[in-house]
Amino acid sequence: MNNRLAKMRKERGWSQEQLSKKLGVSRQTIISIEKGHFDPSLPLAFRLADVFDSTIENIFQP
């Protein structure tokens, strides 16, 4: 699954560490999602959408 997570994070000036703390996950999880090696669980996808004030569909594309 493709995603815009890294782009959206950088637009806000957040580090991977800052985003991971906002979401309560490890920095490695953020790295894996950004690289497309890991698809987040549905609850995590909803938290990402909430943190970015966006929709899941805007962050992730099949």
TrEMBL record:
Residues 5-59 form the HTH cro/C1-type domain. It comes from the Bacteria. InterPro entries: Cro/C1-type_HTH (IPR001387), Lambda_DNA-bd_dom_sf (IPR010982). The keyword Signal does not apply. CDD domains: HTH_XRE. Keywords: DNA-binding. It holds the Pfam family HTH_3. Transmembrane segments: none annotated. PANTHER family: DNA-BIDING PHAGE PROTEIN, TRACRIPTIONAL REGULATORY PROTEIN-RELATED-RELATED. This is Helix-turn-helix transcriptional regulator. It comes from Bifidobacterium asteroides.
